[in-house]
From TrEMBL:
<dbReference type="GO" id="GO:0000049">
    <property type="term" value="F:tRNA binding"/>
</dbReference>
<dbReference type="GO" id="GO:0003725">
    <property type="term" value="F:double-stranded RNA binding"/>
</dbReference>
<dbReference type="Pfam" id="PF01300">
    <property type="entry name" value="Sua5_yciO_yrdC"/>
</dbReference>
<protein>
    <recommendedName>
        <fullName>L-threonylcarbamoyladenylate synthase</fullName>
        <ecNumber>2.7.7.87</ecNumber>
    </recommendedName>
</protein>
<keyword id="KW-0808">Transferase</keyword>
<keyword id="KW-0819">tRNA processing</keyword>
<dbReference type="InterPro" id="IPR006070">
    <property type="entry name" value="Sua5-like_dom"/>
</dbReference>
<feature type="domain" description="YrdC-like">
    <location>
        <begin position="14"/>
        <end position="199"/>
    </location>
</feature>
<keyword id="KW-0547">Nucleotide-binding</keyword>
<dbReference type="GO" id="GO:0005524">
    <property type="term" value="F:ATP binding"/>
</dbReference>
<keyword id="KW-0548">Nucleotidyltransferase</keyword>
<comment type="similarity">
    <text>Belongs to the SUA5 family.</text>
</comment>
<dbReference type="GO" id="GO:0006450">
    <property type="term" value="P:regulation of translational fidelity"/>
</dbReference>
<dbReference type="GO" id="GO:0005737">
    <property type="term" value="C:cytoplasm"/>
</dbReference>
<dbReference type="InterPro" id="IPR050156">
    <property type="entry name" value="TC-AMP_synthase_SUA5"/>
</dbReference>
<dbReference type="GO" id="GO:0008033">
    <property type="term" value="P:tRNA processing"/>
</dbReference>
<dbReference type="GO" id="GO:0061710">
    <property type="term" value="F:L-threonylcarbamoyladenylate synthase"/>
</dbReference>
Amino acid sequence: MSTVYDCTTPESREQGLAAAANIVRAGGLCVLPTDTVYGIGADAFDANAVRALLAAKGRGPDMPVPVLVGSWSTVDGLVMSVPQQARALIEAFWPGGLSLVLPQAPSLNWDLGNTRGTVNLRMPLHPVALDLLREVGPMAVSSANRTGQPPASNVTEARDQLGDSVQVYLDGGPSGEPVASTIVDLTQGAPRVLREGAVSLAELSEVLGVDLESGR
């Protein structure tokens, strides 16, 4: 059975965060609010938990799971290096709706799917998500929906799709417009925008000092 915690009240929020942290540490799954859409999350370093996350969504390892972090400094331990362009984007848009694809540190013992040696990182701008990430460390988090269905913008939509495959649901209220994060690939030298979302091409171009085009 799954449990929903109302994180809009202090007492229930504290209980929910504790329950979610315990579940994640034990290899289970939780649903959490973010600043884009609701996410389904697991311990990024627990391969069995990540496989359970993919199974709950109904998708395979060909679509690797992104990783959410609770601080800028966490990134340094997860990637081979942080190029200057990445640091500029992190300073401008984190926490927020920007995901960065970087070469992962080769020493990391995790299995996020067929990543080809890269990792998709983001720091969300949501207090509940940040509190959980700072408690348990990096989490593998994907949108809280079954593959092919619309992303969940509230906890009811997430629970309707994922049901008891998730042990803990953290209800942070509606996420607003369900806009996905913008994804920038920095693994090939020149930045490539893989998906335009919450952060516009114009905003990215201004920070980087180059003209960017989606999918280029």
